[in-house]
Design goal:
The chain is of the alpha+beta class. Helices cover about 45% and strands about 20% of the residues. The longest helix is centred in the middle third of the chain and has 25 residues, at about 175-200.
């Protein structure tokens, strides 16, 4: 997740000639079929865009870069897929076709591309993979079509959120989804902290690590996530755990260390453990989650 794709030197020159920066694109998710070295390069969007949109810059770079899969990914084949609402999928495929023609006109090989349209009906959530042209790769071609993802109803059919909150995606989310996702993240972070406190041998100095907290909250996915925004989120998460614990009888017993990504808490006995657990159980999830989102917005704007 969030991995930068390498760009060959000859392609960098061609991109400059087209008026684009040679900075490597960062797709949201990469799926690799190890046996065939086939990659699905996924970019998630809340809605489609036209060939006149500013978002075409990244799309053209993805198509061009993944058109050289060996240089970009060490792969034999790469297909660029945009994940978006099903009602936007057909129009977006027309955009992909137009952008592919622009890439070809610059004498650059283009990756195959298509859409994964998501829709919810009375049974649950469905996804339909459609390419702008038939694939030359048998593994990709075999995946084309409609699949059932998860049960639900037409009001709510969320899959299990392995990553409850994505700081790179929240600007495209509606407010209700931001609130849901940030609350899920906060609840999982507090569960992580409760585990650290509850399992410790006392007396002891407990250590909370922002990397471990996010790994716990994302079922281990954050270990493979390369987005630069995670460093800021780890700092914020530790700051919020500190704010919850540095209160009442425990005030003054916490210390943030290691560039803000780690926290130490000294507990002397079971009484102090119970105090720490009480603070964590009573943590205001809504206010903490709102602060996490607000700080991510402010940090993103400062970039």
């Amino acid at each position: 997740m969030g991995r930068r794709i390498a760009i060959a030197e000859d392609l960098k020159k061609k991109l400059r000639d087209m008026g684009y920066s040679p900075d490597p694109p960062e797709p949201d998710v990469l799926f690799n079929h190890a046996q065939s070295k086939t990659h699905l390069v996924l970019e998630c969007k809340a809605q489609g865009f036209s060939a006149e949109s500013s978002a075409t810059k990244q799309c053209i770079k993805l198509l061009a870069t993944c058109g050289q899969p060996d240089s970009a990914l060490g792969a034999s084949h790469a297909t660029v897929i945009y994940v978006l609402p099903s009602e936007d999928a057909a129009d977006h495929r027309r955009t992909l076709y137009e952008l592919t023609e622009i890439v070809h006109a610059a004498s650059i090989a283009s990756a195959e591309s298509g859409t994964l349209g998501l829709e919810i009906d009375g049974d649950g959530l469905w996804g339909t993979l459609t390419l702008i042209q038939p694939s030359t790769n048998e593994y990709i071609e075999s995946a084309v079509g409609k699949i059932f993802i998860t049960e639900g109803d037409d009001g709510d059919a969320r899959p299990l959120y392995l990553v409850p909150f994505d700081p790179t995606a929240f600007p495209d989310q509606v407010d209700s989804e931001k609130e849901y996702c940030s609350a899920q993240l906060t609840e999982r972070i507090m569960i992580y902290a409760i585990g650290v406190v509850g399992q410790a041998q006392l007396p002891n100095t407990l250590r909370f690590d922002g990397r471990d907290a996010l790994s716990s909250a994302t079922h281990g996915v954050s270990k493979y996530w390369e987005a630069k925004e995670l460093a800021k989120l780890r700092v914020r998460v530790i700051a919020e755990i500190n704010r919850v614990l540095n209160r009442g009888s425990l005030r003054g017993q916490t210390e943030i260390i290691q560039a803000g990504q780690e926290l130490e808490l000294h507990l002397s006995d079971e009484k102090e453990r119970r105090a720490a657990l009480s603070l964590l159980h009573k943590a205001e999830i809504t206010s903490i989650s709102q602060k996490l989102v607000e700080d991510q917005i402010r940090l993103g704007e400062s970039d």
